[in-house]
Every structure is written in structure tokens, then in C-alpha cells.
Design a protein that fits this description.
- The complex is a heterodimer.
- By secondary structure, chain A is mostly beta strands.
- Chain A has one helix and 22 strands.
- Chain A has one helix spanning 102-106; strands at residues 3-8, 11-17, 22-26, 33-34, 45-50, 53-58, 65-67, 70-72, 74-76, 81-85, 88-93, 110-111, 168-172, 181-183, 188-193, 197-204, 207-215, 220-221, 224-225, 231-232, 237-241, 244-250.
- A six-stranded antiparallel β-sheet of chain A has the order 2-1-11-10-7-8, with no helix packed on it. In chain A, strands 14-13-22-21-18-19 form a six-stranded antiparallel β-sheet, with no helix packed on it.
- Chain A starts with a strand and ends with a strand.
- By secondary structure, chain B is an alpha+beta fold.
- Chain B has helices at 49-71, 85-107, 155-161, 167-170, 209-212, 217-227, 231-244, 268-274; strands at 10-17, 27-32, 37-44, 115-124, 127-133, 137-142, 145-148, 178-179, 192-197, 203-207, 251-258.
- Chain B has a five-stranded antiparallel β-sheet. Chain B has a five-stranded antiparallel β-sheet with strand order 2-3-4-5-9, with helices on one face.
- In chain B, a hairpin with a 2-residue loop joins strand 6 (137-142) and strand 7 (145-148).
- In chain B, helix 1 runs antiparallel to helix 2 (85-107) and helix 6 runs antiparallel to helix 7.
- The chains are: A mainly beta, B alpha+beta.
- Strand 12 of chain A pairs parallel with strand 8 of chain B.
Chain lengths: 252, 277
């Protein structure tokens, strides 16, 4: 259950658990959270809570509502957000207890029956348009070694798990582009000629792996022919693919 | 009446995994390449009831639809509705699966409250009829464009539709796991059914929320674009990406590639020529 911690000048005054669908904040006494200060409007703001999510809305207050230093009209609260009202601060805390056995259960899909939760805004009529825009599609500039290498523009993949992984690159040892370097920044980098021979290097939390994708011949690593399985790459491994030799190395 | 066999037209690959956290897999997948049918269900409910619900959904749908397709072609217009038979077929068989799961849940205490999300696609005559309930999804890669085709029946989607939150904010929501429709929960359920044209080289991706919650749409699209030449590897790669990112839920993926056009032979002549294709 989310809560707010009311403080002034670093002094904690009160803790309020967000149990109601609408929690009002203002100077007047009928508010759920009353802050008796002239900088606070009579009806200053409201927090709408829907299950685990809370939304803060300014009710047209004179001095405005500030979250994390920015004036907001409407804001989807995230844990540890600080709401400022004049000299007062309200810290929003909504942490899913980590490491508890319940966590897994908590994430299980559940059915929400109509009427169980009232939406603050009326739900849109059941999907009239079937196709809607997902994230804008981009050109995922596949980096083909034979096309000159160099990480092409396009998607900048966000993998949550790349924290500890060393950066790595390929250096071409033969062919027209010998000497060129290709950084392995994407989760997937394909090598070779489509329709002839293609392999993919996947960047995973455990390291880099090469896997055969298409074509009759399989890639060769350090003189050894690979099978259909993913093969873990080590520093200074030499890969031969579609007639081109290249060296895999880790960057420090 | 023999139905067109789509074995040479569609290429289907799938992969399902219990993920990194859950002890068992409550997802269920099934496909019939010849009939152009793919089904994916993500079960929910205590103990092993989720598996029972999703398993019932895929089994009922596949066996019933296989049988009924022997009797009538999916593209033939239905006399009652004027729509292709495929639509009625899916609607009625989903209703049947719903009844079976609902009754099992009512009659056996260990199955009380079980249910499942569902996404089904039936390919025929250069198009596909797609039905879904809940938050299992269908995506399509066409050329460079990777997009979500189905729209979840979930609290989050309703909030996005009503303008309360943006799709970007939805990623931060704690209410990810709430669906507003599921199979087997109520005596009746309405499946959302739409029809789409297909083009040669399209790749369709059916997945449970275990994939799209863990892997961004960008990364899914990249996997399909880079590994589309090897569907089996691509399906494994998608599951691996979900697991590498934490794998908090069961992950299931079905990929369907349209190799070439497959318009249904209608007149006697084209039917005859169809023999020689």
C-alpha cells in the first residue's frame, strides 16, 4: 500500500496511507490531508489511487504543485517522488516488498471484474479500432560486415542487464574491409550475406555467443566448425564466415 | 470436402518456457500448419489450475476447429452473418472452450476461479482471422515495420485509451497484471475478432505477456528482423531474451511466416488448376 510522508524542513510530521480512491490535499479542514499554511490553496491537489498506481492532480491552486522540482498539472506518481506545497514536502513511497515470497504471486495475472475498480475517467468503449500504434517501428539497421561495418544508426536497444558486461568488438582480418572494427553494441548483430551465410552474435548477461542463422555452411571459430548450437565467444577468438576472417575481442 | 493444405505456405515455429522464477508453465500453445491454425493461451489460477485452463483452451479449439474445417471452407460466406465462416467458427469454438473451462471450474473445487487469456489466428485465402481475449498478443513484422495488432483487454490499456496515462507511463505501472477479460471466468465471454490481409514474407508473432513485459517492442522487432531467416532460432532467441531480462513469468512464442500467397481456389477451373500448384 502506497503512503505519503509529510515533512517540513526535514522534520517528519505525519504518515498517510493512501487507502481512498481520492485523497484531497488543501488548506481547508475538509481535506483528507489538511495543511494549514497560506501558501496552500483551500483545495490544492488530489491524489487518485487505482489499485497500485497513484496519480497526482493539481486542482488549479494559486501557487501550483511541484514534483521533484518541476511544476505539474497531472503526474503519475513513482516511488520516492517528492511533492512540494509551499514549505511542506510530501514524499510518495510505494515499494513492492522485494525478496518476499509473495512477490511472485503478486505479479500473477488476475482478472479484473467490471465494477471492481472505478476508473477516474470512464473507460473507452471496447476497442473500436483494432490496430493501434505500438512503439514506432524503426529501421533496425542490421550491421552487415560485408556492407562496410560500423554500427548503423537506428534503434538504441535498452537491455536492463548489460550492467557488468564488457564492451566487445570485431576486427575484420581479411576481405575488402580488412582492418575495420565493428562494435557489438546491440543485443543482436548479424554477420554475413543474407541468402548465402548468416550468423548472429548475441550479447547476453553471461557474455557473447555466436549462432548459425542461415546458409548451408556453418561458421568456423578458431579453425573449428560450429554446429547449430550457440557457441560462447572468448577474447581473441577468430571467426571465419562467408569467406571473411574476423577477430572477436573484449574492450577494456 | 478437402480443405486447402497450407503446409507449404506457412512456416510455424514455437517455443515455451516456464521462465526464471515460476516453477511450472501455465502457458499452452498449439498449432496446425496444414490448417493454418495457431493458438496460444496463458492460464491463471491457483496450484495447477492455470495449466488446466490454458490446456483445455488449446485442446478444445484445435480439435474442434480441425474437425469443422473438414466440413466447410473458412472463406465461404456464412448465410446468417454474411461474414466468412472463419469468424463464426472462431467465435463459436471460443464460446465452447469458455463453457468447458467455466463448468470445470464450477464443478471441481480445486479448479475454482481458473481462467486463461487467449490469442488465436486462422490463416486462409491470403488473410488471417485473429481472435483474442485478455493480454496475450499478436504482432506483425511487415518489411521494416513491427507493430502490435491486438489490443489488450487490461486495466492498463483502458487507462491508456481514456487518456489517463501514456503508453510510456504504462511501462512504469504497478498494475501490469490485471486483465479485464478472460476465458472461463464467466458463463459467457466475448472474444475480439478481426480479419487482416496477409502478404508474402509477413512474420506473425503470438506471445504471452511473459515476453512483452520483459522485452521491449524494439528488441522483439529486431530479433524478428535479424533472425527471421531461421524461425526456430528466432523463437528460442525471444524466449532467451525474456529470461535474460529476468524471466519473471512463463514465456511463450509462436512465429508464423507467410512464404507465398495462398488465395483460396473458388471456381471449378481455379480449383482444378489448384491441383497442379
Amino acid at each position: 500500500m502506497a503512503k505519503l510522508i509529510l515533512s517540513m524542513d526535514g522534520l517528519v510530521l505525519k504518515e498517510i496511507t493512501l487507502t481512498k480512491e481520492r485523497t484531497t490535499i488543501g488548506r481547508k479542514p475538509h481535506n483528507d490531508i489538511q495543511i494549514d499554511n497560506l501558501a496552500v490553496s483551500g483545495e490544492h491537489a488530489v491524489i487518485v489511487t487505482i489499485l497500485q498506481d497513484s496519480f497526482l492532480e493539481d486542482l488549479g491552486s494559486t501557487n501550483g504543485t511541484v514534483v521533484n522540482g518541476q511544476a505539474v498539472k497531472k503526474h503519475f506518481l513513482q516511488s520516492n517522488d517528492v511533492i512540494e506545497l509551499g514549505k511542506y514536502k510530501l514524499k510518495y513511497v510505494n515499494e513492492v516488498p522485494a525478496g518476499q515470497a509473495k512477490t511472485a504471486d503478486f505479479e500473477k495475472t488476475m482478472v479484473l471484474r467490471p465494477g471492481a475498480v472505478k476508473l477516474a475517467a470512464p473507460p473507452a468503449p471496447a476497442a473500436s479500432a483494432a490496430v493501434h500504434d505500438a512503439a514506432p517501428a524503426r529501421n533496425f539497421g542490421d550491421t552487415l560486415v560485408n556492407q562496410g561495418g560500423g554500427a548503423a544508426g537506428g534503434a538504441t536497444p535498452k537491455l536492463a542487464t548489460t550492467g557488468q558486461l564488457n564492451a566487445a568488438a570485431l576486427q575484420l582480418l581479411s576481405g575488402a574491409n580488412a582492418g575495420k572494427e565493428l562494435e557489438l553494441t546491440k543485443p543482436l548483430t548479424t554477420l554475413g550475406k543474407p541468402g548465402v551465410q548468416v550468423a548472429v552474435i548475441t550479447r547476453r548477461p553471461q557474455g557473447y555467443f555466436i549462432t548459425h542463422v542461415e546458409g548451408a555452411s556453418f561458421p568456423v571459430v578458431n579453425g573449428k566448425l560450429l554446429d547449430a548450437q550457440a557457441h560462447s565467444l572468448n577474447d581473441h577468438d577468430v571467426i571465419e564466415l562467408a569467406g571473411v576472417k574476423m577477430e572477436f575481442f573484449l574492450k577494456t | 470436402m478437402a480443405v486447402m493444405d497450407l503446409s507449404g505456405v506457412l512456416e510455424i515455429a514455437s517455443c515455451t518456457d516456464s521462465g526464471m522464477v515460476r516453477s511450472h508453465n501455465e502457458d499452452s500453445i498449439a498449432s496446425d500448419e496444414g490448417k493454418g491454425l495457431v493458438v496460444l493461451a496463458d492460464g491463471m489460477g491457483g496450484y495447477n489450475a492455470g495449466e488446466v485452463a490454458s490446456g483445455m483452451a488449446t485442446t478444445v479449439l484445435v480439435t474442434e476447429i480441425q474437425q469443422l474445417l473438414e466440413q466447410q471452407e473458412p472463406f465461404q460466406l456464412d448465410e446468417q452473418t454474411g461474414q466468412p465462416f472463419a469468424q463464426r467458427l472462431l467465435r463459436e469454438q471460443i464460446a465452447k472452450a469458455n463453457t468447458s473451462i467455466y463448468q470445470a471450474a464450477q464443478s471441481q473445487p480445486q479448479y475454482a476461479g481458473m481462467g486463461t487469456t487467449l490469442v488465436v489466428a486462422l490463416f486462409y485465402d491470403n488473410r488471417t482471422t485473429v481472435a483474442h481475449i485478455g493480454d496475450s498478443r499478436l504482432y506483425r513484422l511487415r518489411g521494416d515495420e513491427f507493430r502490435q495488432i491486438t489490443k489488450d483487454h487490461s486495466l492498463l490499456q483502458e487507462q491508456i485509451d481514456s487518456g489517463m496515462i501514456t503508453p510510456q507511463q504504462a511501462k512504469l505501472s504497478q498494475n501490469k497484471n490485471l486483465v479485464t477479460r478472460a476465458l472461463g471466468i464467466d458463463p459467457t465471454v466475448e472474444a475480439e475478432i478481426h480479419e487482416y490481409e496477409t502478404l508474402p514474407d509477413d512474420i506473425y508473432l503470438l506471445c504471452s505477456d511473459g515476453l512483452c513485459d520483459m522485452v521491449s517492442d524494439e528488441d522483439m522487432g529486431m530479433a524478428l528482423q535479424t533472425l527471421g531467416a531461421n524461425l526456430r532460432l528466432c523463437a528460442q532467441q525471444l524466449v532467451q531474451m525474456a529470461n535474460d531480462n529476468g524471466g519473471r513469468d512463463n514465456v511463450s512464442v509462436i512465429l508464423v511466416r507467410v512464404r507465398k500467397g495462398y488465395s483460396a481456389p473458388r471456381g471449378p477451373l481455379s480449383r482444378f488448376l489448384g491441383w497442379f500448384k
